[in-house]
Amino acid sequence: DSNDDIEDVSLFDADDDVSRRSKKSKIRHPVASFFHLFFRVSAIVVYLLCELLTSSFIACMVTIILLLSCDFWAVKNVTGRLMVGLRWWNQVDDDGRSHWVFEARKVSAQGSKTSSEAESRIFWLGLITCPMIWVIFAFSALFSFKVKWLAVVVMGVVLQGANLYGYIRCKVGSRKNLTSMATNYLGKQFLRQVRFPGFWKRS
Prior knowledge:
Elements: H1 9-25, H2 30-53, H3 57-83, E1 86-92, E2 98-104, H4 117-143, H5 147-172, H6 175-195, H7 197-202
Antiparallel strand pairs: 1-2
Helix pairs in contact: 2-3, 2-4, 3-5, 4-5
Pfam families: DUF846
Transmembrane segments: 30-49, 55-75, 122-143, 149-168
Keywords: Membrane, Transmembrane, Transmembrane helix
């Protein structure tokens, strides 16, 4: 029978592709993903609505600082390690010297990653967007002469900016690596311009 020669390979391949895509888009750490955004978004919401909810500046300031502190601790110690496999900390050696350590989880031998693309998007979106919002708040408080809120806003910029800087260093490597990469790139561009001087004029 001619039907005996038919193989359903494409069907199984399609199922494998669907399963791979579902694994990439699946959130493996829903609790960490929730708290990665909860504290920082809550601090922004409290800052925007606190004057409508209460007239006590001290209560608003303490609430916002507590939320920012919880966010700093959670992002630095928990969500970065679980969601994207990155961590950074300060280490003091036996001589009393302080060192900043930036680490990224190594990919396994099979090339599989423990973090999903959905978690990575959530992590970096929250990590980058919220400090930018606090910078906007800082300029707004400065130009509107709200001096009493300026200290709270600066605290938000410093705490969330520190996590952003630390995880960017973990992602791209040490400053020495960045310098060597920039030097190599500029060297290649210079050599290309010397070899083909007319190319840059035409483009």
